[in-house]
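Section handout, structural biology tutorial.
Before the tutorial, make sure you can parse a SMILES string by hand: atoms, branches in parentheses, ring closures as digits. In the record below the ligand is magnesium ion, and the chain has 442 residues. In the tutorial you will relate the predicted structure tokens back to the input. Do not try to memorize them.
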Amino acid sequence: MLGYLSEKMQNLTAKLSGKRVLTEENIDEAVRDVRMALLEADVNYGVAKKLVKSLKEKALGDAVIKSVTPGQQFIKVVHDELKSLMGTGESVLNLQNKPSVIMMCGLQGSGKTTHCAKLAQYLIKTGKVKTPLLAACDLQRPAAVEQLKILGKQINVPVFSIDGESNPLIVAKAALKKAKEENHDLLIVDTAGRLHIDGEMMEQLEALRDLVNPDEVLFVVNSTTGQDAVNIAAEFNRRIELTGTILTMLDGNTRGGAAISIREVTGKPLLFEGIGEKIGDIQVFNPESMADRILGMGDTINLVKKAQEHITEDDAKDLEKKLRTATFTYDDYLSQISMVRKMGSFKSLLGMIPGIPNLNNLNIDDKEFLKIESIIRSMTPNERKCKVELSVPRRRRVAEGSGTKMDDVNKLEKLLKQMKSFFKKMPNLNQLQKLMGGSRWG
Ligand SMILES: Nc1nc2c(ncn2[C@@H]2O[C@H](COP(=O)(O)OP(=O)(O)OP(=O)(O)O)[C@@H](O)[C@H]2O)c(=O)[nH]1
Ligand SMILES: [Mg+2]
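Predicted structure of the complex:
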């Protein structure tokens, strides 16, 4: 399953946990481990080598973030490198022509025929095309034409075939003619696969390509293929010049190596993912989401991302001290609100840190922030600093001034008390760092 790399990376964070900073020496070992893990996850040797090289450069050059551990930061670098190997974002099919032509190719059983139908339905559903036509040009396998016809019926898309014909070029030519005559906006051509790369298959594909002049030549590949996937992809690309890849069987037992390697080797985008046997089991390939799934450790990566975006250790230390010594005031609360807002949900951020109890009963609702802000702004400086007791008349004045109710002011006072007692019980930052699997930055 995807996520194989995740386990390996957990060990890595542990190894890096005692380090104060990432140095050439201490990341050498980590980088070696990553390389091994990549190869075990079926990443192509050349690709793994390249990835590891840039990993080292990035890890060393990366600015030190104070609020996360070196291990966590390193994992984030690995994640970003994986992501950039797999693409720059979601790619789109070239469907300008009327009709556009997509030719499917790939080895036997890779999912070509199934994905003709999946793709047609997906493109209709997303409004990219209206009237696709499927062409049954796999005349190698006896049941292939019937298989496509059945799929076409399921999605209500016509399938062109010629009974008794054994030459796929004749079928393809007639299908293209029909597509033009009947104003279909897309023709998807299914082709025959072989067990291995095979001269006859390639020649047939070349001839088909020359005949239908496709806008897209999509390589359909079983993502559980392992190291071989790259050689197969490279050979298809060399012979018939692919325009993109569909990775199939991602619901199966794959370690993700094909996904990581194929784009790098072919230079062509990964376009779609097949994630099951049903016709709806197709989705657009997204490099970020794929890196998340391959590497796992989403929590660590999100934590580092958020830390990179918004929090400095100084902020955190300052806040921690105030909370712990219970000197946290309305003023402090107010100044934290903007930081907390920037971080997104306060609860979701704290929720990512292991060891933090469930915060639901703390009743910190993001939507409440605005109200809280206006209440605090209606207080006098001494009230905000908690130097005077919030007596009933004071509460009434604050409520009136902020356009809220007495009850809201009471709630805020209770919330501040709850927060103080909650944070007093919370493990301190050092303990937290240990829980998170590492020491803090020096
Ligand atoms: N689990 C899973 N099964 C899939 C997926 N895509 C296709 N399949 C199944 O894999 C089998 C082979 O798919 P086909 O579409 O017939 O493959 P093909 O490339 O056309 O095979 P040939 O025509 O023999 O070359 C079928 O049983 C499909 O239902 C997928 O993404 N996940
Ligand atoms: Mg087929």
